[in-house]
Write a structure and sequence with these properties.
about 0% strand
C-alpha cells in the first residue's frame, strides 16, 4: 500500500493539471478567437465526429446475428434517408434509433 502522502500528492497533482487544462481555453479566449486553426476545427470537426461514429457503428455490426444485423443496417439506412429528407440531426437519430428498436424487437422476430 502506498504512503498516504504519496497518494495525496498524486491526487493533488492530477487535480491541479485537470483544473489548469480546463481553465486554459477560457484564459486564452481572446488570443485564439480569430485563429485559422480554430476556424478550421469549427468547420471540420462536426463532420469528422459523424464519420467516426458512422464507421464505428457499421464496423460493430455482428453479421453472424442475422436478425440484429438486418435491423441495424435497415435503421442506418432509415437514419440516412430521414437526415437527407429533413436535414435535422435530432430527428434522424431519434427515428433511426426507434426504427432499430422496433425492427430488432418486434417486426423482424416475426418475419425471420
Amino acid at each position: 500500500m502506498p504512503d498516504n502522502h504519496y497518494v495525496l500528492l498524486a491526487i493533488g497533482t492530477a487535480a491541479a493539471i485537470t483544473m489548469t487544462l480546463r481553465a486554459l481555453p477560457f484564459a486564452l479566449k481572446k488570443a485564439i478567437k480569430d485563429s485559422p486553426l480554430l476556424l478550421a476545427l469549427n468547420r471540420w470537426m462536426p463532420l469528422g465526429i459523424m464519420v467516426i461514429l458512422v464507421v464505428y457503428c457499421l464496423t460493430t455490426i455482428n453479421l453472424g446475428d442475422r436478425q440484429l444485423a438486418t435491423a441495424q443496417l435497415a435503421a442506418s439506412l432509415v437514419t440516412f434517408l430521414v437526415h437527407r429528407w429533413r436535414h435535422n440531426l435530432f430527428l434522424s437519430i431519434a427515428v433511426g434509433t426507434g426504427s432499430c428498436v422496433l425492427l430488432a424487437n418486434w417486426l423482424l422476430p416475426v418475419l425471420l
